[in-house]
User: Fold this.
Amino acid sequence: MAGTDITTRILKMYEALSKGKEIQKIPFCEEHNISERTFDRDIEKIRLFLSEEYSGKEVRYSFDRGSYCIPDSGEQGELSILELLVIVKILKSEQALEKREFEGFLRSLLSVAEKGKWEIILKLLQEESIQYESNSGQKAFLKLFGDLQKCIMDRNIIRLNIKGGREEQKRLIFSPVAVEYLSSDFYLLGYEAERNKGLTAFMLDEIESFQMTLQRYEETLIKQYSFQEGRSLLKNMRGKERQG
Assistant:
């Protein structure tokens, strides 16, 4: 009986390894009717592919179990209990989300959690949800974040209302180019349309509201923005705040 063709065989081998499964040589050879030397050549082809892709992964042989595997591989999109808890703890400590948003985020995380441990993970997430306390009167952060990101993608010029002291507000025409994170705060970065100023930033917590206009700013404006420039601006702002 002819063995499995090389393309099908290597694809099956790679699929199993990439999902975190272990492959034992003898059973695999018998299943696909190939010699051990052919098996070794197949393994080397996969090793070569991984090294050329600079994936950081490699096929290893376990002498204890007599099998081949790719360490730290698993179903694509799955989060381990440890990875999931790190994300949740960070979110809980920042308290940027309102209670309902936090609970919705937990449901999303559960959908990509490690299979076979769903009950344990669900119990852990329920405990984190009970402990979560959002700030009183906190606005829906995810909606504001999403709306601003859409304006940036569409290059919409917006009317921005910034909170001020004594119930005053600062109103300006603004071209948003990025939302960045630094030291527990999110910032909207962009350029004021009515002033010949450089890059400007406002904390999302400072934004009372905004309205989209029917105007779009030039693509060159968003292309001139760089993450490094934004990071430098935010660090300078935080430094002045500490000095003040």
About this structure: The longest helix spans residues 36-52. The chain has a mean pLDDT of 82.
